[in-house]
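Q: Can I see a sequence and its folded structure?
A: Here is a first one.
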Amino acid sequence: MSSPHALDHSVHRLYLQHSPWLLRFLGRRLGNRMDAPDLLHDTFMRVLGRPCLSTDEAGERSFLAAIASGLCIDRWRRQEVERAYLAVLANQPIAVQPSPEHSALVLETLVEVDAMLASLPMKVREAFILAQLDGMPYHQISERLGVSERMVKKYMAQAFVHCAVLGAELDGVLVE
């Protein structure tokens, strides 16, 4: 096992060697050079949690690009959820609009729920959405998905476990 000092040196070397390239990569990927430094920082914060195992330049860049690409996708998803939430708020009378603090909490929760739904297998996610948002009974979901009603119950159980974990994380009971 490497020492923390060796890890710090390794990350420092990765940063010095690859940050200009990664900044350009992120700028192109985002189509926006203004947000690239934030994601560069976030990328190296993630690197601290899982050091690069490669020692050649191509492997290091691949490692950094994979982390950075995942962060780009997370940012895009968050922006999509935020746009949808703001569109809903725009249609509400000013008198019932939440405070900025409440809006920020709701938005953060929506982003977490969106991430949880995205992490579910496609049929589990679809069954959960059909049941919870559309109010569809299990027998109709089974027909729609082409699976047995028993399988729908398994899908729902899987989704509810994910919801329970998310709820515990949001309540601060679980730490990632």
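Q: Show me another, different protein.
A: A second, unrelated one:
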Amino acid sequence: MGITRRTLLVGAGSTAALVVASGAAVEERLLPGRSTLHRVLGLNGQPGVVPAVETGQLVSGSFRSKARLGRKVVWSVAYPPGSSASAELPVAIVLHGYSGTHANAFGAGHLGLDRFLAAHVDGGGRPFALASIDGGNTYWHRRSTGEDAGAMVVDEFLPLLAARGLDVSRIGLLGWSMGAFGALLLGSQLGRTKVAAIAADSPAIWHEASQAASIAFDGAADFEAHTVFGRQSSLDGIAVRVDCGTGDGFFPAARDYVAGFASPPAGGFEPGGHDLDYWRRMAPAQIAHLGHHLP
């Protein structure tokens, strides 16, 4: 039997319906591929642009971290324009994402937070420093090996920054992806007396242990001990900002996490993926949020 024009039309209609139905299923989390669908359909919005401005000093160093089992960790501090490396400034700790290092925070080829900080201060924003450090792929909490990047930040990095003259009495926390989870977790552990503000970008969070990436936790008990769900009240008194792109695979969980606050945090959800384009677009608002709320 030959293929008629009617058969082709019916087949085309069925294919279109299948595409629409599949897209709806992805949006409702019934099928994987949300990030790919939004990217292919051009739904992620315009990419953020690192400002072409003159930055302040960038000072780097390293040490052997006891909390990270003797590993050599490298750190960098970005100062705003017009401030010396000995200036007594408030500081926000920057926590990188999975497979990243301290270096991913700064420079025009990376996230460019030093440039965004300079633009913030040039525009009249309150000056502060940004301090980034290597955390490995630990998800910024204690692991079964004994390695604890969160403890490294609190027990080793903050004293180092204080010795350099920075004000660590109440810090800020900024992170993206794995680092955003780390910022929310560390903020909940330290509380309002030590943390003034948090800016969490595209947090890598899951509702249940069975959904989580295998590298993120050492089993279900570790997940339950360190999930940020159900612990939003531990951030009371901290100025929290959470942003996530609607084309990000973590968007549904981030949306549900935000809904769990008694008072909605700053930030929100707009078109964007889990990538530099989105994180750069959010950077000005996040830097301004930290600048406004740091001591």
